[in-house]
Design goal:
alpha/beta; ligase; nucleotide-binding; 18 helices; binds zinc ion; zinc; elongated
């Protein structure tokens, strides 16, 4: 047992709509499996995130509906909070980027960078409407993408190829309001001096040996061509630029991506402020022996292995221009950027606009959260793009959860309940008994090592291999044939129950909801696997209400070790832990996908 401080920094879901299972396979389930394991291992985890609510797509959605961006953000924040709590995501704090605290911390990082010279003003060409003379926000300009040739690219980003753009880059730019050609005039913006971090980022990445090779290689390659990047944008929805002459301008804000990544820090500070010890965040951000793991899908690597580390280095005064830390003090860089690849759906890319999608809430309305968590951990896109198929989901659920693990729990507990009514008292253990218990207890080292290194697919299959060993033991020893030898029968059942208890701990990070049930079937009381809760709070500074996800996770009993079961603990006849799914769901879900896809 150790007690390291571990920050689990989970990518911020964007609040322009509900999240689908492709999203949560990237940032969601892997980060929670990791955090639950680390807490069981005795470490002090701080898991933070929130909804990312600034930027153009939200203002575009608001324009389309004729409502304010805040209304769009409020609505989707609430939906996403419900989805992630339903999945059992144990955030210490899941908040949002529209809090006053977040704005203040984002502005502090900007000012720290400015003080050290890593953010600088530069005259660039900004768009104005020739007919009104007013600034045209980036989103109101469209044209042809200079990178992929897509004709509907916006002034800040091309939705076809995903590249960030400047309005001046567009070929044949036009105003989306009236079709006129915007006039480009000189105006000031602030830029992040990324080239000043080439050396410091290279030194840091050079020490990151444990990363997934594709993530590390991608990150190192980015260093070949760093260019200053615009820190401010022409937009009216975002964090104000904290400078005289800028603060009150309605048309200039900090670029959404540069405030979103600050969210890891601002959420940690908000958590500390809410905990009653406003300085508590420092243990995760400043102690030299604390660790920080960042979880995301691969489309966000650049912001976590380049932009955010550059912001941190500049704030610390550790780029080529030197400097001193800002008023918060020196901040730690990520220990590891843990990025997943993409999940596809029945061979197609997830797409909300084309309805190739299943939203988390629809999934959870029809299936158990643990079944989805298990699929993502055991068969998800950890190292390569991976396809979600309903047939494979059904197979994993029915063969591995129901017939494998669930059946082991069910037959062991029901035999002990029926024959003894309690955890039986064992006699002397045979070699076979000892061999099984050696297997289950040594699995804490092997599975734990894999989980600590975020090899979750391998960890899940290793835990299930141990379940298989226990099932084989039970078939070999056949306690149901030992009616004439009750002492031996009791020893076998005791051994099997101890194995079930061990396997339940090994599977708890993946299957927290069913782990709680198994804990109770084994006669346990109280909380084994902690659950998050949704709490209605008010903004600490401006009083506006919003929901957060939080929880009391340290009081839970789950530990990463074999816990001896106690003879005599009463056992009742078990109810099934997992639901067997009917084969017909495959066709049903495929039909649903076709119907949704046709309905646009
Ligand atoms: Zn493009």
């Amino acid at each position: 047992m150790s007690d390291r401080h571990i920050l689990t920094a989970v990518a911020w879901p964007y609040a322009n709509g509900p999240r689908h299972i492709g999203h949560v396979s990237g940032f969601g389930v892997p980060s929670d499996v990791f955090s639950r394991y680390q807490r069981m291992a005795g470490n002090k985890v701080l898991m933070v995130s929130g909804t990312d609510e600034h930027g153009t797509p939200i203002t575009v959605a608001a324009d389309a509906e004729g409502v304010s961006p805040r209304e769009i953000a409020d609505r989707n924040n609430r939906i996403i909070v419900g989805d992630l709590a339903g999945l059992g995501m144990t955030y210490d704090l899941f908040t949002r980027t529209t809090t006053a605290n977040h704005a203040a911390v984002s502005q502090e990082i900007f000012l720290g960078l400015l003080k050290n010279g890593y953010v600088f003003p530069k005259t660039t060409l900004g768009a104005i409407s020739p007919s009104t003379g007013r600034t045209l926000p980036d989103r109101y300009i469209e044209g042809t993408c200079p990178i992929c040739g897509f004709d509907g690219a916006r002034g800040d980003q091309c939705d076809n190829c995903g590249n960030q753009l400047d309005p001046i880059d567009l070929i044949n730019p036009r105003s989306r309001i009236n079709g006129e050609t915007p006039k480009f005039v000189e105006e000031e913006h602030y830029f992040l001096d990324l080239p000043a971090f080439t050396r410091a980022l290279g030194d840091w990445l050079g020490t990151r040996k444990s990363w997934r090779p594709n993530v590390l290689n991608f990150s190192v390659n980015l260093l070949d061509d760093l260019k200053p990047r615009s820190y401010t944008r022409d937009i009216d929805w975002g964090v104000p630029v904290p400078l005289d002459g800028w603060r009150d301008r309605p048309d200039k804000r900090i670029y959404v991506w540069f405030d979103a990544v600050v969210g890891y820090l601002s959420a940690s500070i908000e958590w500390a402020r809410r905990s009653g010890d406003p300085e508590a965040w420092r243990q995760w951000w400043q102690a030299p022996d604390s660790d920080a793991y960042y979880f995301m899908g691969k489309d966000n690597i650049v912001f976590h292995s380049e932009i955010w580390p550059a912001q941190l280095l500049g704030y610390n005064g550790e780029g080529d221009k030197g400097g001193t830390p800002g008023s918060l003090g020196r901040l730690n860089l990520p220990t590891e950027v843990v990025s997943s690849e993409f999940l596809t759906m029945e061979g197609r890319k997830f797409s909300s606009s084309r309805q190739v999608v299943i939203y988390v809430r629809d999934f959870l309305a029809r299936y158990d959260a643990d079944a989805l968590r298990y699929f993502i951990a055991a068969a998800g896109p950890e190292n390569q793009d991976t396809d979600f198929t309903w047939a494979e989901f059904l197979r994993r659920n029915n063969d591995e959860l129901v017939a494998g693990w669930g059946n082991l729990v069910n037959r062991t507990v029901s035999m002990a309940a029926k024959n003894v009514g309690a955890v039986p008292t064992p006699g002397e253990l045979t070699e076979a008994d000892r061999a099984l218990l050696a297997t289950t207890s040594s699995a804490f080292d092997t599975v734990g090592d894999l989980l600590g290194r975020n090899r979750q697919r391998h960890a899940a299959s290793e835990a299930m291999r141990v379940v298989g060993e226990a099932n084989k033991y039970l078939s070999d020893q056949a306690p149901w044939k030992l009616k004439e030898e009750p002492a031996r029968r009791d020893t076998v059942l005791f051994t099997a129950l101890q194995a079930v208890s061990d396997c339940n701990a090994l599977l708890s990070p993946f299957l927290p909801h069913s782990a709680q049930k198994v804990h109770e079937l084994l006669g346990g009381t109280g909380v084994w696997s902690p659950e998050p809760r949704i709490e209605e709070v008010t903004d600490l500074d401006d009083g506006s209400p919003y929901p957060v996800i939080t929880g009391d996770y340290d009081a839970a009993q789950a530990v990463w070790a074999s816990r001896p079961i106690e003879a005599g603990v009463p056992l009742a006849a078990p109810t099934p832990v997992f639901k067997k799914l009917d084969e017909s769901i495959v066709e049903e879900e495929l039909r649903r996908l076709e119907e949704d896809g046709d309905s646009e």
